[in-house]
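re: that complex we talked abt at group meeting.

here r the seqs, copy pasted straight from the sheet so there may be weird spacing, ignore it
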Amino acid sequence: MGMHGMSTARPYKHVLDRLQEAGLRPTRQRLALGRLLFEGEDRHVTAEQLHAEARHARISVSLATIYNTLHQFTAAGLLREVVVDAGRSYFDTNVHEHHHFFNEETGHLLDIEETRLSVSDLPPPPAGMCISRVDVIVRVARTEPAIKAQAAE
Amino acid sequence: MGMHGMSTARPYKHVLDRLQEAGLRPTRQRLALGRLLFEGEDRHVTAEQLHAEARHARISVSLATIYNTLHQFTAAGLLREVVVDAGRSYFDTNVHEHHHFFNEETGHLLDIEETRLSVSDLPPPPAGMCISRVDVIVRVARTEPAIKAQAAE
DNA sequence: GTGATTGCAAATCTTTTGCACTAAA
DNA sequence: TTTAGTGCAAAAGATTTGCAATCAC
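got the structure back, here u go
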């Protein structure tokens, strides 16, 4: 270790172990993408971003494989998909329960730890249904509430 | 009144007035779509659904116009866009602050009145940013937590 | 009439798929 | 080997755009 950076912000497991535990064959592409995704701090990426990053890092991976990999990782619990923007999918390396600030102007996501926010008085779900996940998205904009009308006060 | 239904669940304003207040020319298409959207109870629609509905009602409107109209209505504060599914946009006729249950299996949205749920301890937004909107999406599934593995156990 | 609006079809963008090829076990 | 995984290019959706035709004022 220690050949390409200084901070090992996530002392968790090696990418290889993660893949094996998830039952995913540790192929060159998965290992490479896994390193990009998991060896730094938690992050939020789109397929396109990860693809560009891989290209940068001289990793040869097709966009199709990026998508396949992101979904396989998600299915395996290694990533979590965050829906904040119709038309673009973000994948979050933080799979713990938490929420997000979303800057619509820049497309930037920022985690809000679960402990820092609480949702209460949640009504019971419709009959026969159970809650599988609660997502709180706090949309932010450059100061100046621009929020048209607001209608209710 | 009373020519096509029984309940006038929303005694608010006439579609014509709404459009004029919004500064939108009351064209045949906008009036027709506005009636479909605003003359019943609050609802959630996708462009495709509204298009099908219009066709059903013998209203001739192109999909492009449906999209334009939905966005114009949204910009005018007559609709609110709800992002719950990457790849599909839902438009909600309820523009008050509120949240949603989302059934991923059926793609069905159900309102949760704001008074029935509260988000507390929201941390302050990043410097220079202000909150423009808080969306809470409660994803539900047919009973049986199916939520795979849960990773930690 | 005049400019806003519409329709249509083509263009974009993101994501998925089919299939021959490659690589892990 | 044997089967999972990958790349590419084409397909599929959803949404947008350009522009001539149409409509509200």
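couple things i noticed - The radius of gyration of chain A is 18 Å. Chain A touches chain B through 50 residues (CB under 8 Å).
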